[in-house]
Amino acid sequence: MNRALDLDNKLWGILAVVRVAESEQRGYLLTGDPKYLEVFHTTADSGLRAVAAVREAIVDKPGAPTRAHRNRALGGAQVRGGAGNHSAT
Question: Are 15 and 47 spatial neighbours (Cβ–Cβ below 8 Å)?
Fold first, then answer.
Protein backbone atom coordinates (compact mmCIF):
# COMPACT_ATOMS: atom_id res chain seq x y z
CA MET A 1 0.00 0.00 0.00
CA ASN A 2 2.86 2.37 0.81
CA ARG A 3 4.31 1.83 -2.66
CA ALA A 4 0.97 2.65 -4.27
CA LEU A 5 0.64 5.84 -2.23
CA ASP A 6 4.19 6.86 -3.14
CA LEU A 7 3.46 6.31 -6.82
CA ASP A 8 0.19 8.22 -6.55
CA ASN A 9 2.02 11.17 -5.00
CA LYS A 10 4.65 11.09 -7.73
CA LEU A 11 1.99 11.08 -10.45
CA TRP A 12 0.18 14.03 -8.87
CA GLY A 13 3.53 15.81 -8.75
CA ILE A 14 3.99 15.28 -12.48
CA LEU A 15 0.52 16.69 -13.12
CA ALA A 16 1.36 19.79 -11.08
CA VAL A 17 4.62 20.29 -12.99
CA VAL A 18 2.85 19.94 -16.34
CA ARG A 19 0.28 22.54 -15.31
CA VAL A 20 2.96 25.03 -14.31
CA ALA A 21 4.94 24.42 -17.50
CA GLU A 22 1.80 24.87 -19.59
CA SER A 23 0.97 28.12 -17.82
CA GLU A 24 4.48 29.50 -18.27
CA GLN A 25 4.52 28.53 -21.93
CA ARG A 26 1.22 30.28 -22.43
CA GLY A 27 2.56 33.37 -20.65
CA TYR A 28 5.51 33.51 -23.00
CA LEU A 29 3.36 33.02 -26.09
CA LEU A 30 1.00 35.79 -25.01
CA THR A 31 3.59 38.33 -23.88
CA GLY A 32 6.88 37.38 -25.51
CA ASP A 33 8.52 37.94 -22.09
CA PRO A 34 11.52 35.57 -21.77
CA LYS A 35 11.10 35.29 -17.97
CA TYR A 36 8.26 32.87 -18.70
CA LEU A 37 10.60 30.70 -20.74
CA GLU A 38 13.11 30.54 -17.88
CA VAL A 39 10.46 29.16 -15.54
CA PHE A 40 9.16 26.88 -18.30
CA HIS A 41 12.59 25.32 -18.85
CA THR A 42 13.22 24.90 -15.12
CA THR A 43 9.80 23.31 -14.71
CA ALA A 44 10.27 21.05 -17.73
CA ASP A 45 13.57 19.80 -16.30
CA SER A 46 11.83 19.13 -13.00
CA GLY A 47 9.12 17.24 -14.87
CA LEU A 48 11.66 15.01 -16.58
CA ARG A 49 13.18 14.16 -13.19
CA ALA A 50 9.70 13.41 -11.83
CA VAL A 51 8.96 11.06 -14.73
CA ALA A 52 12.27 9.29 -14.12
CA ALA A 53 11.31 8.88 -10.45
CA VAL A 54 8.00 7.28 -11.46
CA ARG A 55 9.76 4.92 -13.85
CA GLU A 56 12.14 3.91 -11.08
CA ALA A 57 9.26 3.41 -8.66
CA ILE A 58 7.43 1.00 -10.97
CA VAL A 59 10.44 -1.12 -11.90
CA ASP A 60 10.51 -4.47 -10.15
CA LYS A 61 13.35 -5.09 -7.75
CA PRO A 62 16.24 -7.25 -9.06
CA GLY A 63 15.90 -10.89 -8.10
CA ALA A 64 12.20 -10.64 -7.37
CA PRO A 65 9.68 -12.21 -9.72
CA THR A 66 8.32 -9.57 -12.04
CA ARG A 67 4.69 -8.52 -11.81
CA ALA A 68 4.20 -9.69 -15.39
CA HIS A 69 5.55 -13.13 -14.48
CA ARG A 70 3.29 -13.36 -11.42
CA ASN A 71 0.28 -12.20 -13.44
CA ARG A 72 0.91 -14.76 -16.17
CA ALA A 73 1.20 -17.52 -13.57
CA LEU A 74 -1.97 -16.38 -11.83
CA GLY A 75 -3.85 -16.08 -15.12
CA GLY A 76 -2.75 -19.56 -16.16
CA ALA A 77 -3.90 -21.00 -12.85
CA GLN A 78 -7.28 -19.33 -13.20
CA VAL A 79 -7.74 -20.63 -16.73
CA ARG A 80 -6.79 -24.17 -15.71
CA GLY A 81 -8.79 -24.23 -12.49
CA GLY A 82 -11.65 -21.80 -12.80
CA ALA A 83 -12.65 -21.46 -16.40
CA GLY A 84 -14.80 -24.58 -16.46
CA ASN A 85 -15.49 -26.64 -19.52
CA HIS A 86 -16.90 -24.74 -22.44
CA SER A 87 -18.45 -26.99 -24.98
CA ALA A 88 -20.13 -25.88 -28.16
CA THR A 89 -23.79 -26.75 -28.19
Answer: no
